[in-house]
Amino acid sequence: MMKLNRPRWSPLLWRIALLSTVLLFHNPVVHGNDEISSESQPAGDAEQYETPTVDPKRMYFAEHFDDLFDGASDAIEKRWVKSKAKKDDAAEEVAKYDGEWAVEQPQRPILANDYGLVLKSKAKHAAIASPLLLNRPFVFEDKPLVVQYEVNLQEGQECGGSYIKLLSVGDGTKDLKQFHDKTPYTIMFGPDKCGNDVKLHFIFRHVNPINGTITEKHCNKQKDRLDDPFKDKRPHLYQLIIRPDNTYTIRVDHKTVNEGSLLTNFTPAVNPPAEIDDPEDRKPENWDDREKIPDPEATKPDDWNEDEPAQIPDPKATKPAGWLDDVEEMVPDSSAVKPEDWDNDMDGEWEPPLIPNPMCEKAVGCGLWKAPMVPNPNYKGKWRPPLIANVNYQGKWAPRKISNPDFFEDLTPFRMTPIAAVGIELWSMSNDILFDNIVICDDESVADEWAAQTFDLKVKTLDRQAQTLWDRAMRYINYKPGYWGAYFVYCSIPLIAYVWFLWSRRDKEGDAKAEIGRKKKNDDYPAPEHEQDELVGGAGEEAEDDGRSSKTKLNAAATGSSGSRSASSAGEAYAENEDERDGDEAEEDEEDDEAQEEAQEMEAGEEEASSSDAPVDSKNSEGGEGLKKRRARKD
């Protein structure tokens, strides 16, 4: 009996599942919005990072937020003050500064025990501030101002800012709970974006030394556009340096993106012009400022026809055959029904709407045919005389200059209003904006040392993680959760194709094995004896028609009948008792051997008969009788 092959799909499925797991989870770093504990970070990174030391002697302000995370909601208020003010120029329901602040790890933790200040809410006004260390203000004298901080737009940014304000010394900073958008500040610095407008703000408020008025001076835009910080969801370091010689430098991730002078690179300029236009000066009525005038002696040519149109119907065009002139292109909609609330007095007489004529769909065109328009070769347009130089031209008029009564010259705009606190006042359409490692000092090396212990270590860790194919792919798709499914499907395409190939191959192999099984079964369990007798009889009849070939057929019939009888006996025994199948098969083998020997003896006898002149029919009949006797003996 043929044994069926059991499909080996369990090991294959296990291999596919294992391969998928290796591809998807070979990188231990969390991607996207998944949160993991600090223990899951690489041990080397965790050992390298240590919270920087705050030295009030070298820094005016330093904040790492690492010690403000203790699970309590008011832990942040140890050093920071949340605003409870209201905006003056906003509606009551949106005037409150009710944005939510929290100290927590990034969504994609990079360093163990590294925390930051996170704006959790969006589409809300949020403000928070902290005084400088030891309440010691920064005074602009003979040392530079260095401002440095990190921002991580964890959800990207479409419209909103992530800048900080350095609040001025004065009454506005005595109660930081009243910190709002109108609170006086000295410098505003940081990135901002809304739509396609990308900015890196550097604004300082300049005090007029004559009348004390304050004007905001905006730094000119940098040459290169900064798009990556708003979409790559990585931490970025912003640094501003203002020196006593009035020069400034702006760096992003240690790369200089803008630099210049406070005196020349701001709008409006720090110092007003010494002279201005006289507001009372007026242009004389006879002032001729026309540089060229029409030639008074020029005349229009006689062949100039101004009435010629710019385009005319194409004289070579002909109406296409099959054009339906008498059929309208638009016809009233016969299925339209007048609305029940239609008032003829108010709305006029109702008419069904027009729809394209169905007859025109199959035709070349409908309605009145018109030739297409082509440019008119005779068109010249309106004639105008040529222009010539104006002999009375007096030049462009401009009002006379007078001394500027508000003129002043401030050669040291670096000496700004002293700084008393750091504030963050935002309105953003993105949440989870993380601020970290805010530093204010007067020495660049101090800021660089702080960055080396924090930001630079993060960059090294991220770069090392980005060496894997998975992280590069996730960074390329901007860590958007919606793309994970597409990426998984993309990675699964080879697996799906491989499984499909194996499945189709298994079907083909199964069909082939089933066909072989059917053939072997037919060989093991042949047809009944009466069918075999018919086969033998048919072989005898054919022998009468064909001399020598009938002997071969008779031998084949005899051999087949002997094998068939023994096989049928085995088949009956199999039907009666399935347990005796092995013994029956052995008997069948013995009977097959005997049948083969008998067939060989018959062939030898037939060869002797063929050498003689005896008739073939008598030999066939004797051979048939001998076969019947042997069959009875075997039965």
| Count of DSSP H/I helices | 13
* Sheet with most strands: 9 strands, antiparallel
What is the helix content?
Answer: 25-40%
> Overall 3D geometry?
flat
- Terminal Cα span: 23 Å
Structural class: alpha+beta
* Beta-strand percentage range: 15-25%
Question: Total strand count, please?
Answer: 25
Description:
Strands 2, 5, 7, 8, 9, 10, 11, 15 and 24 form a 9-stranded antiparallel beta sheet that branches. Strands 1, 3, 4, 6, 12, 13, 14 and 25 form an 8-stranded antiparallel beta sheet that branches. The protein contains 13 helices and 25 strands. Strand 12 and strand 13 form a beta hairpin. Helix content is 32%, strand content 20%. With 635 residues, it is α+β, with helices and mostly antiparallel strands. It is flat, with a radius of gyration of 50 Å.
Question: What descriptors fit this protein?
Answer:
single chain; 635 residues; alpha+beta; 9-stranded antiparallel beta sheet; 13 helices; 32% helix; flat; disordered N terminus
Write the layout of secondary structure elements.
Elements: H1 9-25, H2 43-48, E1 59-63, E2 81-82, H3 92-95, E3 101-104, E4 116-119, E5 125-131, E6 145-153, E7 159-161, E8 164-168, E9 185-194, E10 197-207, E11 214-219, E12 236-242, E13 247-252, E14 255-261, E15 266-267, E16 275-277, E17 292-294, E18 311-313, E19 330-332, H4 344-347, E20 354-356, H5 359-362, E21 373-375, E22 387-389, E23 401-403, E24 419-427, E25 433-441, H6 444-453, H7 455-465, H8 469-476, H9 482-524, H10 529-545, H11 547-576, H12 581-611, H13 616-634
Antiparallel strand pairs: 1-25, 2-5, 3-4, 4-25, 5-24, 6-12, 6-25, 7-9, 8-9, 8-24, 9-10, 10-11, 11-15, 12-13, 13-14, 16-23, 17-22, 18-21, 19-20
